[in-house]
Specification:
It is a single chain. With about 230 residues, the chain is an alpha/beta fold. About 45% of the residues lie in helices and about 15% in strands. The chain contains ten helices and eight strands. The strands form two sheets. It has a six-stranded parallel sheet, sandwiched between helices. The protein has a two-stranded antiparallel ribbon with strand order 2-3.
Amino acid sequence: MTLSLPRRITHVLLDLDGTLTDSAPGIIASLRVGFADAGLDVPTDAVLRTFVGPPLGASMTGIGLSDADAGAAIAAYRRDFEVHGMFDNSVVPGFPEALTELRDAGVTLLVATAKPEHYARQIVEHFGLDRYLEGGLDGVHGAAGEAVGLVEGKEVVVERALAHAVALGADVGQTVMVGDREHDVHAAAHHDVPTIGVTWGYAAPGELEAAGAVALAATPAELAKLLTS
């Protein structure tokens, strides 16, 4: 099934890491600590950068770690992340203005992230992004806190965010995902929702196009135009 942008977009699911915020500095620093504290070899920064965005368990499995080693590394990572890495982060320049434009145009905004929900809500609140979301922090949907391995992928989070959107009166056929990695595109497509890929995030060259993103935005202003035109 080939997806395309709806003629009218009423509800938007926004990814967090690499889309709304540049979270790589804090995540990579805490991953380095996590691997070291777990007694594992620390991957290169280039490899660690690929961890930003996808479910963490999937990335750990992807580099060949056993479930036990992955669990140890994630637990150690989270201990450091909660103290040091979480707010070593910044909102993508121009995005608050784009969010204001979208809200003024009547678009309902929700967050759908593979990050554990309790972290995502703290980050959204810290940067004041909750003011743009339907229901404030209730509009932030993330992975269950206990999900360590492949227990909960992005498609499960998208499903919950969509259910919230539908409860708010959304037609799924007028809903769009916005993300910076292939897993955003695939998770949304699993629910027949098209994705606009943002090119300022952490995707490898050609990743978003190959995954099936229906359009690309190079700036938040360009994204707002795509969503409201």
